Amino acid sequence: MRPRKICFLLAFLLCFLIGNIFLVRSLEYPVKAAPLENTVTVCSSDCAYTSIQLAINNAAVGNTILLYAETYTEPININKSITIQGMGDDQTIIQAATSPDTATTRVIAIQSGATVTITGVTIRYGDASSLPSNRYGGGIYSLGDLTLSNTSVTENSAERGSGIHCGAGTCILDGITIKNNNAVYWGGGLYINNTTDIYDSTIDGNNATDNGGGIYIDVY
């Protein structure tokens, strides 16, 4: 083989290897791309907002709030129809406190009339048991129409429905994990008082002092 051909092949192989190294690095450490239309971003730096609640307050109906792979310590109140999208329940965490059994409020409240989708997050460390009223839903207290997918709800507390309290409206739970939540009375993992559909989900290791350690259904 001629020397020029050998040099060309070596150069080609070197460029190929370098290109693949950069590709692997880019996959390992994803770049914060420009958000899609009707999407607002939340992260500690270089995003539209650093607070989820501030993003919700300023979002328009139908917007998607994109949460990057971080831990967000703040209670959230949702009073409009939006989507909250994380990077996966092992990467995006929403919590009411920095450690278990220290919170004084729930993690997420969804108000009546709101149609909300939440996907790809972990919701943890909420405690609604000491609130002045409505001591339900330490992780999520929903009075709207909630679709929850690819999400973990863990280590929350409340009088009832410690993980999730599905009140008025509807709940669709798809591919979620509800575990290690504790209720003072009923529904350690999930309290259902509306129309709720559950698909491909795990409810395990939850406790209630009275009834329904995993699920309590109160339909009347």
List strands and helices in order, with pairings:
Layout: H1 3-28, E1 39-42, H2 52-58, E2 64-67, E3 71-73, E4 76-78, E5 83-85, E6 93-95, E7 108-110, E8 115-119, E9 122-124, E10 140-142, E11 145-149, E12 152-154, E13 157-160, E14 164-166, E15 170-174, E16 177-179, E17 182-186, E18 190-192, E19 195-199, E20 202-204, E21 207-208, E22 215-217
Order of helices and strands: HEHEEEEEEEEEEEEEEEEEEEEE
Beta fraction: 35-45%
Helix content: 10-25%
| Count of alpha/pi helices | 2
**E-strand count:** 22
Low-pLDDT residue spans: 5-11, 13-31
Structural class: alpha/beta
The pLDDT mean sits at: 88
Characterization of the model:
The N and C termini lie far apart (85 Å). The protein has two helices and 22 strands. It has a seven-stranded parallel β-sheet with strand order 1-2-5-8-11-15-19, covered by helices on one side. Helices cover 15% and strands 35% of the residues. It is globular, with a radius of gyration of 22 Å. Helix 2 links the parallel strand 1 and strand 2. The longest helix has 26 residues. With 220 residues, it is α/β, with parallel strands linked by helices. About 12% of the residues have low confidence.
Keywords for this entry:
six-stranded parallel β-sheet; alpha/beta; globular; 220 residues
Structure summarized in a few sentences:
With 220 residues, the protein is an alpha/beta fold. The chain has helices at residues 3-28, 52-58, and strands spanning 39-42, 64-67, 71-73, 76-78, 83-85, 93-95, 108-110, 115-119, 122-124, 140-142, 145-149, 152-154, 157-160, 164-166, 170-174, 177-179, 182-186, 190-192, 195-199, 202-204, 207-208, 215-217. The longest helix has 26 residues, at 3-28.
